[in-house]
Amino acid sequence: MSERESTPLPQFKILGQPVHLSKDYIPWLLDRLQRGIGTHVVTMNAEIVIQATHDLELSTIIHNADLVTPDGSGIIMALKLHGITQPRYAGIDLGEDLIRLAGEADREYPVFLYGGKPQIVQKAAQKWQTELPNLKIVGIEHGYLDTEQQAKLLHQIQSTQPKIILVALGMPRQEIWIRDNFHLCPQAIWIGVGGSFDVWSGVKNRAPQYIRNLDLEWLYRIAQEPSRWRRALALPQFAILAILERLWGKHKDKLAPN
């Protein structure tokens, strides 16, 4: 293994989409940060898998990502069907862990926040700057930019070279945007964090821990945002397809290296 490579994590495919398996992803990511190995992280849930089954562009992005983590409870359920015990790692938790890593006194990992509404991304940044005084945020930009503003954003990212870039544009827009601009900062961790800025800013509440422990965070989000119910239709569709996939025995080889 060369200095520019990292130990591959085992992966398993669910409905044709890969997910990497680990009890703790942070040491693996920290190793890549320390060695300047760029990393595109996709946080996988049932909705993304269903969309990727008929969206070749999204499926290709997922397959080319350096790390695909099990965000949703549906992914954990599908893995259990194949006898694989894997803890869920929500994208918001991964984003928080990376920010806390960057905020440690002996670290030098500048952070860039992009996406969400103007006041929301500002409040999210303020929350973390207050909590982590050593955190170095080198850029904050909302997700409603015109063409000229977008060009300035890309120039800012390229000139500041942050090490952790959190993108909150929603799926799949954030995954496509990261794919298209990864070359501007090739040594950074790029991760789409969806609605995390809303929670960090205090505009929305995250489900209590006991609800998360029951794998019902998706239901709590629907209760907060009833308009999400159409998106939730992917869950039963995913469950049926995952069960059928298990019954058809398509995964005789089980785990495979990255």
TrEMBL record:
The keyword Magnesium does not apply. GO terms for molecular function: hexosyltransferase activity. Keywords: Glycosyltransferase, Transferase. Transmembrane segments: none annotated. The keyword Glycosyltransferase applies. It comes from the Bacteria. InterPro entries: WecG_TagA_CpsF. CDD domains: Glyco_transf_WecG_TagA. It holds the Pfam family Glyco_tran_WecG. This is Exopolysaccharide biosynthesis protein, WecB/TagA/CpsF family. The lineage of its organism: Bacteria, Bacillati, Cyanobacteriota, Cyanophyceae, Gomontiellales.
